[in-house]
Target: Protein nucleotidyltransferase YdiU
Amino acid sequence: MQLSHDYAEHLPQLVRLSQGEEQPDPHLLFLNEPLALELGFDPGWLRSPAGLDLLLGHDTAHAMAYSGFQFGQFNPYMGDGRALLLGEARVGDVFLDLHAKGTGLTPFSRPGSDGRATLSSILREYLVSEAMHALGVPTTRGLAVISTGRKIQRGHVRPAGVGVRVAASHLRVGTFHYAQLGDGTNQLQALADYAISRHYPAAIKSENPYKEFFRLVVESQMRTVAKWQRLGFIHGVMNTDNTTISGQTIDYGPCAFMESYDLATVFSSIDNGGRYAYGNQPHILGWNLARLAESLLPLFSSDPNEAVSFAQEVMDFFPERFEEEMSAQWAAALDTTPEVFASYREALARRQPDLTQAHRALVAAVGNDSSLARELFDGEDFLSAYLSSEPSPKKVDDSFPRVIPRNRQLDAALKQAEAGDFGAYREMLEAVIHPWRPHPHFEEPDPTGLADFMTFCGT
Ligand code: AMP
Ligand code: MG
Model:
């Protein structure tokens, strides 16, 4: 199968032709066969030397340019420093990006970097993104994990890997900032037109397609982050280069699932100020979207005042819209009223139970076993209010998964995988892609708590 290079052809200034480095001893460790088939690949061919060449970026490939606000600081020249857009697969009438990470230096690599990734970070992204997909969160998917046979220096010597993922696209908020750096509005408009036709074609018909485009990006990102909140997913590094235009979750670096419910939860070792804490994610999404609005101002209107007041209006309303979306999503999942949801959330904050287990305790209570719910929420009056709202047992069961990738179990599985034993990793992968199946090992919260648990960018 031939991949197309639609993005590179439409926006040549936003990419650099680049190739994946030769790998000493590449082995395809994991191939997501159902996904490969959906993309129109013959899995057998992908496993062949020619398939491996494609996945490693040895055919025509491009590094994509973007800028980014990293922890609030603008970095104009970033881009794929260790990754390549392999091209797009056409599925029905949409293009899907294939993108490989850990393929070696590119024109965007930071000085002194090696363009590579640890096998462990690649395995982590593969498992967590597939878990997110199974949990119903818009996300990039994991297609393949390849060990390269290299050892790389990351504190100590670690095996390296290449991960291939599939995304609706790799357009980021930061891509729009980069487009402005070149010839300004022309390139920006070309990028916006491309993004509209690829992700929000309905916007073309509206009076001002760029305003409508912005509103639609806001809506889809909001829906995604509201789902993160319900599951306790903490992205960890919500820089504008990690915020997609499609609304998909992207870049599973220091991400982690919260266990004990606490708005201040942070796991990333580099997030000292708690900028990307669990409870701050909605606010940061708003901040990132405001940066997107700023870059789109010239397209909103030729009258700068009018453009600013439009952006201002959307952003002023954002916190309220987010709260509305979250409350609607969460109340629908609980099959109850927004009022009962609000009191559940207050009870969660007071009791700080394991979020996944608390949700499942409610499912059990709705199904007539309220023992765990009574234990977790002893003396909280929301529980009787909830049960008397008569939620449907099937609906609530379908809303709240049993299995999420729990942090210490994932770390332990990755350590063993790094040492060559993939048993625990395979077992966990199988569990997280079927998150509603009862599982003997993966439903319980960490017995020691996660107070000292930390994640690293793991590059
Ligand atoms: P990430 O943390 O993966 O979102 O990456 C942030 C930026 O740092 C991107 O521009 C990456 O391409 C770049 N980067 C991260 N790790 C490396 C590496 N080992 N070599 C080159 N560039 C890197
Ligand atoms: Mg990134």
Q: What stands out?
A: The chain is about 45% helix and 15% strand. Residues 78-83, 109-110, 113-116, 242, 251, 253, 457, 459 surround adenosine monophosphate (ligand 1) (CB under 6 Å).
